[in-house]
Amino acid sequence: xxxxxLENLGISRDIINQIMDENGKDIEKAKSDYAAIKAxxxxxxxxxxxRDSQLxxxxxxxxxxxxxxxxxxxxxxxxxxxxxxxxxEISELKINAAIDRAMTAARAKLxxxxxxxxxxxxxxxxxxxxxxxxxxxxxxxxxxxxxxxxFEADVYKFRGFQPGASMGLSELKxxxxxxxxxEAMGLN
Length: 188
Description:
Blueprint: H1 3-8, H2 13-61, H3 65-105, H4 111-117, E1 124-125, E2 131-132, H5 134-143, H6 169-175, H7 177-185
Antiparallel strand pairs: 1-2
Helix pairs in contact: 2-3
């Protein structure tokens, strides 16, 4: 979505900023999810190709049975190690995606600096597969006096009269302003 499109619709800058912030969060979440899925797919393609080549090698070794069982046990061990390494990479991708989403939601100005301040030992993936420990740390960093400058300040909303803002007839009636206008104009 482009800012100019919203401006052409006559939407105020404050509302456009809120829309663009929310849209940015959605886009960043989608990008991180896409990157994680793409990396997992590429890793899986590599594992499948490796196992196919291992099976081809086994077919060539089928002549000697003792040698074949030895090779099979070696490959099983190698596959277990590869599966463990793959699981570690996937969890690292999930953690990185969660950190990126949390930094975007907190409106971090300097994501690399914020990431450097995170205690990665406290960030874990729980049994349900969700990442735990990121939001708490980023919230603490954004509220801390020493690190709050790394985050954009909250947008303040003004109450009362706002130049350029118009009130509808229903809002005027709720405030009792329509009656006061009628009295001032002598229409009662």
